[in-house]
Write a structure and sequence with these properties.
- The chain is of the alpha+beta class.
- The protein has two domains: about 60 residues, OB fold (Dihydrolipoamide Acetyltransferase, E2P) (Beta Barrel), CATH 2.40.50; about 140 residues, 5' to 3' exonuclease, C-terminal subdomain (DNA polymerase, domain 1, Orthogonal Bundle).
- It is built from nine helices and five strands; from the N terminus they run βββαββαααααααα.
- A five-stranded mixed barrel has the order 1-2-3-5-4.
- A hairpin with a 3-residue loop joins strand 1 and strand 2.
- Helix 2 packs across helix 3, helix 7 packs across helix 8 and helix 7 crosses helix 9.
- The longest helix has 16 residues.
- The chain is elongated, with a radius of gyration of 18 Å.
- The protein starts with a strand and ends with a helix.
């Protein structure tokens, strides 16, 4: 099982990249956001999810281990295959995805390629019950939202985690706390400190 590839980018296509690792070229399928970061001739490291089928072995590459984990996690929902999961991650990086799950934002899922209204509703509902990917702080199954390094600063991620923890300490259940903080964070144009997030999240809970 291949977990990651480190090598030189030999070519970048519409939905694949060719990574040269010690003279061996690996064809890796990736989403648009990952492919946009790759430059031909430059070194790259991709985290890999390997799909083994009777007639083929496919490698799916991601810029972070968190994205790879979400890719696998999304496919636990009926009707979500590799192509749809890539489309969802292109439309929503991990932090935005966690927010959409927390507040059950069906419209956010529907913006992804290959996701219709029915599947969007199923994703919003069933992912909330499942929590986040194993090995990551997630929704319903962990302590707080974890922000992607590509979409939020460490300070913002820490503020969200602190806000969720504060609400849980006040007796609010984990899922409700995560939803309240995700909703509250959308009210701020920039990263908000934990005290402001907590105050805004408490207002969300009281509604």
């Amino acid at each position: 099982m291949i977990g990651s590839l480190s090598g030189i980018v030999a070519a970048v296509g519409e939905d694949t990249a060719l990574i040269d690792v010690g003279g061996v070229g690996y064809v890796v399928q990736s989403g648009g956001r990952t492919l946009a970061r790759l430059q031909v001739g430059a070194p790259a490291r991709l985290f890999i999810e390997t799909h083994v089928r009777e007639d083929a072995i496919k490698l799916f590459g991601f810029a972070s281990e968190e994205e790879r984990a979400w890719f696998a996690h999304l496919q636990t929902i009926p009707g979500v295959g590799a192509k749809v999961a890539l489309g969802i991650l292109d439309a929503m990086p991990p932090e935005a995805l966690a927010d959409a799950i927390a507040i059950q934002d069906k419209a956010a899922f529907a913006r992804a390629n290959g996701v219709g209204p029915k599947l969007a509703a199923r994703l919003a509902t069933e992912l909330t019950g499942k929590g986040g990917p194993k090995g990551f702080i997630g929704l319903g199954g962990g302590a707080a939202l974890r922000a992607s390094a590509n979409t939020a600063s460490p300070a913002a991620a820490g503020a969200r985690a602190e806000a969720v923890s504060a609400l849980v300490n006040l007796g609010i259940d984990q899922s409700s706390a995560a939803r309240a903080v995700a909703s509250a964070a959308k009210q701020f144009e920039a990263d908000a400190p934990a005290p402001e997030l907590i105050r805004a999240a408490l207002k969300e809970v009281s509604r």
